[in-house]
Design brief:
The protein has a single domain (about 20-255), classed as Rossmann fold (3-Layer(aba) Sandwich), CATH 3.40.50. The protein is about 45% helix and about 15% strand. The protein has helices spanning about 25-40, 50-60, 75-90, 115-140, 165-185, 205, 210, 215-220, 230-240; strands at about 20, 40-45, 65-70, 95-100, 145-150, 190-195, 250-255. It has a 7-stranded parallel sheet with strand order 3-2-1-4-5-6-7, sandwiched between helices. α1 crosses α9 (about 230-240), α3 packs parallel to α4 (about 115-140) and α4 (about 115-140) runs parallel beside α5. About 45% of the residues are buried.
Length: about 260
């Protein structure tokens, strides 16, 4: 039996809008969940880790925000369907989504195993599509409207380093999915955009040290010489959720200290 939506009029102090954040238990995703809740949105945190997801929920609620954790592996169609069904049970609707779940894909193309290649696409491309499919269906059924932001990468617009071919290819595909979804649903008032972060302080950046030189290499490529922060990415996503960006659709916005301009 479905639960009645919690406080649908936003009297809990939220503005009533609902956002789903995939990969929301760590890194950019966790920072986004915290930032969105601080901005007044009701946040559904989706991630595979029960422990870290529950921690993220507690952190937000301790700060006075509204958040729920729902365990979800975005590579599973059933779990993705359940995530959005649960969101509707909790809050009655979905207004925004930040499709952030992602994995690296290190290794030169000639050296990759089939499993490594498939894993990058299973999460970064197919998982993104599975989430987009549910989000677009729900927003359409609600009468249209809504804003979706996909977390891609500068690697989805430009081949930066050798040795991460599966990741680069999967992120190029994510950019294509963003643009197609925007074109197909613009007539319903549903906007689909993407952020394309450059190097951002995260476990993934630290882990890239061995493969591509990590932050040290990146500082030589960024005009500002600075490594970004998760909050800088979240600020752009929040703007894309807002009416201030109402005529922005199908765009991939670099959050990269000027790297894509070089």
């Amino acid at each position: 039996m479905s639960e009645a939506p919690d406080d649908p009029d936003g009297s809990d102090g939220s503005d009533g809008r609902v956002v789903v954040v995939t990969g929301g238990s760590a890194g950019i995703g966790r920072a986004a969940a915290v930032a969105f809740a601080a901005a007044g949105l009701r946040v559904v945190i989706a991630a595979r880790s029960e422990e870290r997801g529950a921690e993220a929920e507690r952190e937000i609620r301790a700060r006075g925000g509204e958040a729920r954790f729902v365990r979800c592996d975005v590579t599973s169609p059933g779990q993705v369907r359940d995530l959005f069904a649960r969101t509707v049970e909790l809050y009655g609707r979905v207004d925004h989504a930040f499709n952030n779940a992602g994995v690296p894909g290190d290794g030169r193309l000639a050296d990759l195993t089939t499993e490594d290649f498939d894993r990058a696409f299973a999460v970064n491309t197919r998982g993104l599509w599975l989430c987009l499919r549910e989000e677009l269906r729900l927003m359409s059924a609600q009468g249209g409207g809504g804003s979706i932001v996909n977390n891609t990468s500068v690697h989805g617009l430009r081949t930066v380093f050798p040795g991460i071919g599966a990741y680069v290819a999967s992120k190029h595909a994510a950019v294509a999915l963003t643009r197609m979804a925007a074109v197909e649903h613009a007539h319903e008032g549903i906007r689909v955009n993407a952020v394309a972060p450059g190097p951002v302080e995260s476990d993934m950046l630290a882990a890239s040290e061995a493969a591509v030189g990590g932050a040290t290499t990146w500082r030589g490529l960024i005009p500002s010489g600075e490594i970004g922060t998760p909050d800088q990415v979240c600020d752009v996503a929040l703007w894309l959720f807002s009416p201030a960006s109402s005529y922005v659709n199908g765009q991939v916005i670099g959050v990269d200290g000027g790297f894509l301009a070089t």
